[in-house]
Specification:
Layout (H helix, E strand, L loop, with lengths): L2 E5 L5 H13 L8 H6 L4 E6 L2 E12 L2 E9 L8 H15 L4 E6 L2 H6 L3 E3 L5 H6 L13 E6 L2
Parallel strand pairs: 4-5
Antiparallel strand pairs: 1-2, 2-3, 3-4, 5-7, 6-7
Length: 153
């Protein structure tokens, strides 16, 4: 299965919105409006299989030395095929190219991230994340996501 990861463009906004919304409706991803996606389109990547949108993710800078993988999702029918791993690898290479030494995520899929070289860490070590997103989250007082981080060489 040949999957191509690429930077997202404005023409991807509707597809990005649809997949993010499908995860948000299940309570496992923060929702993003089409306007927010469009405003931050340069942070998104798209995975395609035979020209069809099958997944996405984004790399969001939280500081000089830290970026977050967020809005990581794979379309139904394409899960379990290594697409998420390819997206994470693509985003990790982007972080390396920007010389950012740490990459983190908040997730319910700890085993997936561990297979991709991340380790579990306390959420409290990321005040940048707390003040950027968590303050607006309805789960902020009872967050059940797990923080993972990877140091990039």
């Amino acid at each position: 299965m040949t999957v191509v990861c690429r930077k997202a463009t404005e023409s991807d906004v509707d597809s990005l919105y649809d997949i993010i919304q499908s995860y948000a409706e299940k309570g496992i991803m923060l929702p993003r409006s089409k306007e927010a996606i469009s405003r931050h389109i340069d942070s998104f990547v798209v995975a395609e299989y035979e020209g069809k949108f099958v997944g996405c993710g984004s790399l969001f800078r939280l500081g000089q030395e830290l970026v977050e993988i967020r809005s990581l999702g794979v379309s139904d029918g394409y899960k379990g095929r290594g697409i998420g791993r390819q997206i994470v690898s693509f985003l990790t290479e982007q972080a390396r190219a920007q010389r950012i030494p740490k990459i983190m995520a908040l997730t319910y899929e700890v085993a997936f991230f561990e297979k991709n070289g991340f380790t579990v860490v306390p959420k409290e070590i990321f005040p940048e994340k707390v003040w950027t997103d968590c303050v607006h989250c309805k789960k902020r007082d009872h967050c059940d996501e797990i923080a993972v981080m990877k140091h990039l060489a």
